[in-house]
Design a protein that fits this description.
alpha+beta, OB fold (Dihydrolipoamide Acetyltransferase, E2P), nine-stranded mixed β-sheet, two-stranded antiparallel ribbon, 16% helix
């Protein structure tokens, strides 16, 4: 049996599309999924696409070596070119990340999963991350073979996200109705907040 080689990586800065990073999306499963699509311009996307393509093809070749029938499997990739509403290419690529909110270990123990969130200075945060936020993602590549669809592919499981520029959930359209004014500006970092030093070293942002 071909062993799954799991590899970690950190993405370039990109734009978060439909993020579910603070709480899991339970629309399609009771346990829920943490997920986000990362939008990258082509020049930033190409090195990552090359890396993921190599991992997928190496896994496919290992499968074929152990079982010649595997050559009939189709390789699928966790990225695609973005198109606008008219079907025109935008010059960007979309990368899909997803992590189950609950996983079961080999011993039957259930584990609740989380995606760690950090700000631009690597401090832990609890802010709600909305679509349009500029982020970097630390993730692990999990190769897989799915016999039902006769495909080989990669799952990109996010472990942590660094928020470079925050777009708060549900506020962008309302805020755009106003002009900027001189006056009150909220200090998002509350005085007295404590951030654990050992937590900031968890991801190589």
């Amino acid at each position: 049996m071909t062993k799954q080689k799991r590899e970690s990586f950190v993405t370039p800065k990109g734009i978060a599309v439909y993020p579910w990073l603070n709480t899991p999306d339970t629309k399609f499963s009771p346990e829920g999924d943490y997920k986000v699509t990362l939008k990258l311009p082509t020049n930033e996307a190409e090195p990552l696409m090359e890396k993921l393509t190599t991992v997928a093809e190496d896994y496919y070749n290992e499968l074929v070596k152990s079982d010649p029938k595997a050559k009939n499997l189709k390789i699928t990739y966790p990225f695609e070119e973005e198109t606008d509403d008219q079907g025109n290419l935008t010059g960007s690529y979309l990368f899909k990340f997803k992590q189950k909110a609950q996983v079961t270990g080999r011993d039957g123990t259930n584990y609740n999963m989380k995606v760690a969130l950090f700000d631009a200075k690597r401090n832990p945060i609890t802010a709600l991350v909305g679509g349009g936020s500029e982020i970097k993602i630390a993730a692990t590549i999990w190769p897989y073979k799915m016999n039902t669809t006769k495909t080989v592919g990669l799952s990109l499981k996010p472990t942590a996200v660094q928020v470079i520029n925050l777009q708060a959930v549900g506020t962008s359209s309302m805020a755009d109705m106003f002009d900027e004014e001189d006056g009150f500006v909220e200090d998002i970092k509350t005085p007295g907040d404590v951030y654990a030093d050992d937590t900031t070293d968890a991801c190589d942002f």
